[in-house]
Please model this.
Amino acid sequence: MDRSWYLRFTVVILAIATAWFALWPSLDGLAADGEDIAMPAPQWVRDVFPGRINPGLDIKGGLRLMYEVEVDEYIRDRRDRYSEQMVRQLGVLLGILDDDEVDSASREKLAEVQERVTVQRVGGRGIRVTFADQADRDRFDNQWISDHFNDLRRSSADGLVVDLTMREDRLEELRKTAVEQAVRTVSDRIDTYGLREATVIGRETEGDLIVEVPGADEASFDTIRELIARTARLEFKVLDDEATYVAQLPAEEIEAAGLERRSEVAPAGEARPQVSTSYLVATGEPCDEADEACVDPRERLQAFIESIEVPDDHQLIVSRLARSEDDQVEERTRDEESWRTYYVFRSTDVSGEDVADAAVTYDQNEGNRPVVSITFNSAGATKFEEMTGRNVKRRMAIVLDDRAESAPVIQTRIGGGRAQITLGSMLDYNKLLDEANQLVVVLRAGALPAPLSPANEQLIGPTLGRDSVAKGATGALVGVGLVILFMLIYYQVAGLVADVMVVLNLLFLLSIMAAFEATLTLPGVAAIALTIGMAVDANVLITERIREELRQGKSTRSAVDQGFKRAFWSVFDSQVTTFIAGVVLFQYGTGPIKGFAVMLMIGIVTSLFTGIFCSKVFFDWIVRGLKVERLRVG
Model:
């Protein structure tokens, strides 16, 4: 035996050993519930090879959730960001701001811009720009719009008023982007939570996504639903406590909505004394889920906010009113709760996109209660420091999903890139800790680009999954067994080599699945069966070539060498063309079709390795190591 054979043999042995160790831990997970395998993987193997094959929903049973991505909300949010940024860019156009002040302009400078131009939101996609002077209006041309806001186009113009709208050719791209970002965010949340066997599938054309969670219990399902549906949009917004907007709302409208108006004293900046500011309050008992006609206090307050016209550059944000803040708590039953409003500036310099990390910590000043500590990235830390520095002695609302979790007073400029979110004071310790942990998960994974609305939910029992996989596995094993038996009888020694290659091919295929933590589904089982057939086909081509060479009177060694050499391109071509078909299926297929395509492509790679490389090593060992003079090939 020459040195090259020993090198190739070493490669094969190392590949087999690595594949076995990579697959070994997965055998425990693939065993039926309550069954122990004969040789459980040692702990060191589990530590070195952490990857597992995850049984799919059709095998293990579980939960299948379908959500619709509210793409219109995503487009509206993009439009809102453009309108806020347009005020700043118009400040540069009008010579009020410098280029380096766009992201850090003071509120006084922005007010000066708004004296000369007003930017309003119109409908779900439009922006209306109204100038106070014709000379300023003349600078606002199509070229400037295209250079600064390429997603917008001018839809109409009338004197000093210019209407802009989102370009139609960008809307479809935005829809696709919304679904892709939603899939990525939901996948990250599920992975962070530890459910790596879950599958998230996005369908851009339908604007929805499907989440499949195999084998979890009902308690886990509830947590998963909350993790998925939570938008987790975090924003830091300064309160406008000097404004009189709430105080001027008609009293009869407030009373008709079942609300009340209250006032409080709040700081209004370093140069100003404290001022009296008004806010709205809704009080009542929370609704029972079974009572569809009930409207709880928060919904009642939110409905009133949506029914009134709030200035375009401001927002009314709701927040739970703590009992320590409620001077009328003794007049209410302990089951009732109160919600209040904060009047905030709509624009914000710091959001969840600036958060680098989040963790649960404990606030000793609040009885060691769990809080969420967040760390900003470098850009976010700079913006947060500038924002707090401009608003010392003002209140800042920490807004999560359009709800203010707290509104602390900024006592001084906050550097260091850290902040703290104090969650609802009405929750008991365990619920507070659970909410803090869930918030950390969603903040680390990022906010959803748009809200998700549940469209369909299916609970698949494990019995159906076990029956399906049992039948599928039985069919696959019978097929493989018949193929192995036929090869052994018809091709004799060469058939034995082919059978060994089939086993090795299956070992390599499953180990690759384990390494990439792939999900095994019934279409995947079908692809494995097809791959085994193609692996046998490669060995049949090689064996037939060897038989032809032997019939021509060549020696065994020469017949083996020439058989592999002449069969190589036939084997390679057939496998590559099938691989291309798998690529097409993966590109245009969805769900089960993609799973089938992935398994097929992996199987083709392992078939080429076992059929050409490994089988040549075994044949060389037979004809050179064992020095077989007459090779039995049927």
Q: What stands out?
A: The longest helix spans residues 462-515. The chain is about 50% helix and 20% strand.
